[in-house]
């Protein structure tokens, strides 16, 4: 196959690029999850109006604007307030902020699928509001969100290619570089597509495993 | 003091409509207090006010002399002494049978796991849930088994009183018996119980007192004999007639 030699010639630099793609996805996913958890608690369980409203505005803003715009904004606006972010830092922050908006939607849907009667049963035994939320609503709700969160991670991995526009040497950036240097565009982009498909598939599989690990009979089916 | 629960002039409104209208009643230690009445009459609302799952808009609720409705009292502290069993069991879906029953003692009383397990085993034995079911999840059990586990979950907290909200009305007729049997055994052991039910046979054989509730009011209250077999009020009569008809039993009057 024609693409094979391009892969053999450049495997080291491609592997490193893959590492960047995965790391950006992983860090922004985790950071995004932490933020999303906070947002979700505010949206569902806070008794105050203003924070609820602020979170909604945040979610709508980040879901309503292109991720590339968000990334450029973080990368080019940060020096204006005296912070110099590396391409990697800017990408992680931008993707995390973006992913937090989506993840909080998934978490909210998952938690809202938990019947109120589960919460009542915990309260009736003498648990406090937060005790009931943590030991009953979250374990069930998180399980319900798991497959959406898995999809979000795979989406992040694919969209991490946008980081190439702020010169992060991830997969797409490196592929473009190799293609331009060797004029073997078709082969390089074919190889790139295959890498994305294979890794994306592996990630999905991994998440299925996680889901199966947390599976409880009769809970989500 | 004999009085476990006292409901004093309690009102509850939903969307501006009164669904409980100034109900007062007293449940004494050892009572099997049965509440009957038509659908929508406010029975569940009344029962759920007894552990303040629903907060009354007016009136007071007392538990062992403590006013739970007082702003100075945190009802969470008292719920552990008031067991409740729901119509739809409401077992924790992500926990095994054993974990469901251990949950209260561990999370609320801070009991050690092995100690809680012993308590849970005793509770499960008392509702005749066999060992083979202990590691199953709620969805793998029949309705009758789930409801008995729910009773065990409440019992594991060693409550002073047990509230039951139509515990058998979601069950197939052939599963109703096993749950009623467990409740009868509980009554024999002297448990104070408040039971909302449509099972008139159970009421007749187990109740120490019966209250008939209609449109948010206690229409009539008395012994099973008084309420079931010689009701004074026309509304009680009409309701019982409908119920007996449902069960194809001829009333004695
Ligand atoms: N959370 C709620 N919000 C609004 N209305 C409610 C709520 N809970 C109960 N109601 C209304 O209050 C009335 C009494 O309800 P409740 O559940 O106490 O009746 P019930 O006697 O238990 O009836 P059933 O035998 O059908 O269980 C009903 O008209 C019901 O629609
Ligand atoms: Mg009811």
UniProtKB/TrEMBL annotation, chain A:
Membrane topology term: Multi-pass membrane protein
Gene Ontology CC entries for this record: ATP-binding cassette (ABC) transporter complex
GO molecular function: transmembrane transporter activity
Superkingdom of the source species: Archaea
Major localization listed first in the record, in broad terms: membrane
Example of a GO biological process term: amino acid transport
PROSITE patterns found in the cross-reference section: ABC_TM1
UniProt name for this protein: Amino acid ABC transporter permease
Species of the source: Fervidicoccus fontis
Source species taxonomy: Archaea, Thermoproteota, Thermoprotei, Fervidicoccales, Fervidicoccaceae
TrEMBL record, chain B:
InterPro entries, alphabetized: AAA+_ATPase, ABC_ATPase_HisP-typ, ABC_transporter-like_ATP-bd, ABC_transporter-like_CS, MetN_ABC_transporter-like, P-loop_NTPase
Top-level lineage group: Archaea
Major place of residence: membrane
Pfam families membership: ABC_tran
Membrane topology note: Peripheral membrane protein
Subcellular location: Cell membrane
Keywords associated with the record: Amino-acid transport, ATP-binding, Cell membrane, Membrane, Nucleotide-binding, Transport
Residues annotated as domain ABC transporter: 5-240
GO cellular component labels: plasma membrane
MF GO annotations: ABC-type amino acid transporter activity; ATP binding; ATP hydrolysis activity
Family to which this protein belongs: Belongs to the ABC transporter superfamily.
Stored PANTHER family: AMINO ACID IMPORT ATP-BINDING PROTEIN, GLUTAMATE_ASPARTATE IMPORT ATP-BINDING PROTEIN GLTL
Protein name: Amino acid ABC transporter ATP-binding protein
Originating species: Fervidicoccus fontis
